[in-house]
Amino acid sequence: MLDLSDHSILSIRFCGKDGTFAPPSPIFRCMTRARPYDRNVALDAALSLFWRKGYHATSLKDLEVALRMKPGSIYAAFDSKHALYLSVLERYFLRTRDELRTLRDGSGPVLKGLAEHLRGVARREAHDPGRSACMLVRTMLDATAGEAELGARARSYLDAIRDEIEAAFRQARADGELPDQADTALLAQRYQSNMTALRIEAHRGLGDAALIGLAEQMAQEIEALGSGRLASPPKA
Amino acid sequence: MLDLSDHSILSIRFCGKDGTFAPPSPIFRCMTRARPYDRNVALDAALSLFWRKGYHATSLKDLEVALRMKPGSIYAAFDSKHALYLSVLERYFLRTRDELRTLRDGSGPVLKGLAEHLRGVARREAHDPGRSACMLVRTMLDATAGEAELGARARSYLDAIRDEIEAAFRQARADGELPDQADTALLAQRYQSNMTALRIEAHRGLGDAALIGLAEQMAQEIEALGSGRLASPPKA
DNA sequence: AGCTGATTTGAGTGATCACTCAATGCTTGA
DNA sequence: TCAAGCATTGAGTGATCACTCAAATCAGCT
Q1: How far are the Cα atoms of A117, A195, A199, B71, B190 from residue A120, in angstroms, in the given order?
Q2: Architecture of A82-226 per CATH?
Q3: Residues 18-57 of B with CB under 7 A from strand D
Q4: What is the pLDDT of residues B97-156, one digit of tens each?
């Protein structure tokens, strides 16, 4: 009983299989069947949206616009809003972790790299009009009892990042940048706390100079570890 | 056309006008018309709920249960979910501010009080099974563009708290606990950042010992300010 | 051209959202 | 004892939620 008699306008969209929504090109090489969207592009769009609005405040309507996909396609590709968020969160985590890994794999001294990382985040956020705190922290704070899995996932990713930071401190110690008795676990925990606080201050809208100054203070505390005197925490 | 014939049980609730839900006392002094709920009790219930679940994830249904009020009563008393949240947020802010004020008004040295405050928060959170980060921070992170007022309010409360902290540092300086050149604005900002980070770590579920250790580290940094050497931040 | 099967579509699903209001019930003053 | 007046009630409002599925679309093959 579907009556199409009054459908005078049908929507027309062109989708290149690389995910760009360009008008159709005559050169269409198709193997099995190309997807008219690119999974990575879609995930990046979802990441940006979820990061900005949070899980609860982001509706399927928002996602449809951001991903340029209809609900059916979204569900075919990502199963559910919840599953999509988990995919996005993993993507965010992997990027953050890789960014930290380059600090260890880089050529310069690791301690200096950790300090510079703090300065770099502050500088980047200072110039970003859409400042936003760490997505893992946001997810953790936002996850309710009903979405325990989200919270647990965010926590485990945060733990993995802490481990990555500790690995960097351990390498610094092995390289002789830190005294042998340096407590790398404690240093990593404090470093991560500082980074969390720094990014929340960025989200808060702290003035550029103050933000960079805060990072500078934290960075110098890291660098001071190398000079020996503060390498181990104060005694209780 | 209301048929009550099959209502064999009617709910019975007794509400003292002080908000306690005690059985009716023969001594009911009523001036104009006693409210069967106490605004403060209701606000506390809403505070607990909103703090735990966040603004978006808390539904009117949740509030009806927590406040023991029907939707009509909630709207008569608080206008809207949004307005209720603002009232609750102010309540939270005032408590936090007052707690800080007692540090200044107390008898002991202010610097020691600030350090003890960090230790106290860590100890309190360590024993609280329902650990939760600062509600102002949560609100700020949760507020979307569509609820700009919520975010702005949270930010201004955070600013007010920073001012309160700075006032404490200024008093410490006036009392001779800090050197004259101590930068109280910078100290306050860092103190608040540390507190934010500490409470997020609590929310994260950091082990009790680690949480208390983190606070101890922060507290000793504050106390070290009094010994002169670290009173001003490292030079850039 | 026409068939085939993978893919996209978008109107529609029931549930739940924040919120309303006519009706009810209780307290008070007469 | 009762009328008046207001706080409380809770079923109901339209909107929006996450999500579904039959139909349309399109590339590749014959």
Answers
A1: 5, 11, 12, 49, 19
A2: Orthogonal Bundle (1.10)
A3: 33, 35-37
A4: 999 999 888 889 999 999 999 999 999 999 999 899 999 999 999 998 889 999 999 999
